[in-house]
Design a protein that fits this description.
The protein is an alpha/beta fold and 216 residues long. It folds into 2 domains: 4-75, Orthogonal Bundle (Methyltransferase, Methionine Synthase (B12-binding Domains), Chain A, domain 1), CATH 1.10.1240; 89-215, Cobalamin-binding domain (Rossmann fold). 52% of the residues lie in helices and 11% in strands. The chain is built from 10 helices and 5 strands. The chain has helices at residues 4-13, 17-28, 33-53, 59-75, 102-113, 127-137, 152-162, 176-180, 197-205, 212-215; strands spanning 89-94, 117-120, 141-145, 170-174, 191-193. The chain has a 5-stranded parallel sheet, sandwiched between helices. Helix 7 (152-162) links the parallel strand 3 (141-145) and strand 4 (170-174). Helix 1 packs across helix 3 (33-53), helix 1 (4-13) packs across helix 4 and helix 3 (33-53) runs antiparallel to helix 4 (59-75). The longest helix has 21 residues, at 33-53.
Amino acid sequence: MTQHHETLAHLFLDGDEEEALFYINELLNQYSRAYLFEKVITPSMYYIGQLWEQNKISVADEHLATAVCDFVLSSLKENKERRKEYQHKALLFGVEKEQHYLGMKIVAETFKEQGWKVRYLGPDLALEHSLTQIEKFKPDVIGLSAALSYRLPTIKTLIERFKRLEWKPLIMVGGRMATKFDLDEFESDRVMVIKGLPHLRQWFKEGRAGVINETS
């Protein structure tokens, strides 16, 4: 039996935006947004990546699928139960020269579901530009995303700079890199490595977000 993520992946690869969005909204009648992000949308993109690695699809196919996935993420039904008052703020972006961004968009939606005010700045953001937004927004959490190991020096530079911010935000490091490599050296009371959406949701479930203001 074909799994939901495979069905969605082939809709992405067919370039069928309307059918892909319809399929996701139908699933929303049965499952939570959290389930869709963790068990359907994210695995669908991993599945597409595997097809590309196996030379079963072309780069153009992969780019088309990414564009359709982006459309679906931007068009999903709003969560009507979202809280009106924000207790915390998060700012998220992909490091300089990092082009992957769909995972970060899903993380942004996850923060919003938890009642956070979120600024998602997209991929490939230089340090000086991120600092401008960070100083204005003063987020409680700064989320950094990277997929490839040679972004590690950039991640380290960003962490060291953000540690000097006077209000002491929590720095989260995520992306495919965080699931494939041991990044324990970066972790501290100010830096957390997020190894996938289940890890982030566990952090929310444990209520650890509630202690941010107490420690900053």
